[in-house]
Amino acid sequence: MTKETLEKYLEKWRKQLDQLMDAYLALVKGGVKAYKIDDRELTRFDIPTLRKAIDEAEKKIAALEAELEGLKPRKAFGILPRDW
């Protein structure tokens, strides 16, 4: 991806994170019973789902920022202990 494309994705994810955080805070404080983001309406029952979406957005932002800085994405690997 080009630097410009990465910056556009980063900006999109930051805006999405801002919207998610606004919804989360409004629902947690209890000032509202429902919160609307674009065409989605969220209630207090959606708080765990909302928290997962926030975590995902934060991870995506961190990955995009790392890629802009020239760092390679982390690779997951597993170690299987063997009993010989």
Summarize the structure.
Helix content is 58%, strand content 10%. A two-stranded antiparallel ribbon has the order 1-2.
Summarize the structure in words.
The chain has one domain (3-68). 58% of the residues lie in helices and 10% in strands. It has helices at residues 3-29, 47-68; strands spanning 34-37, 40-43. Helix 1 runs antiparallel to helix 2 (47-68). The protein is flat.
What is the H-and-E element order? HEEH
Shape: flat
Task: Please report the total strand number as a whole number.
Answer: 2
Number of domains as seen in the coordinates: 1
Helix content: 55-70%
The largest beta-sheet arranges its strands as 1-2
Structural class: mainly alpha
- Tally the helices: what do you get? 2
- What distance separates the N and C termini? 45 Å
The poorly predicted ranges are none
**CA-atom Rg in angstroms:** 18 Å
Q: How much of the residues is beta strand, in percent?
A: 5-15%
pLDDT averaged residue by residue = 86
Major sheet, described briefly? 2 strands, antiparallel
Which characteristics define this entry?
84 residues; mainly alpha; two-stranded antiparallel sheet; 10% strand
SSE order and pairing:
Layout: H1 3-29, E1 34-37, E2 40-43, H2 47-68
Helix pairs in contact: 1-2
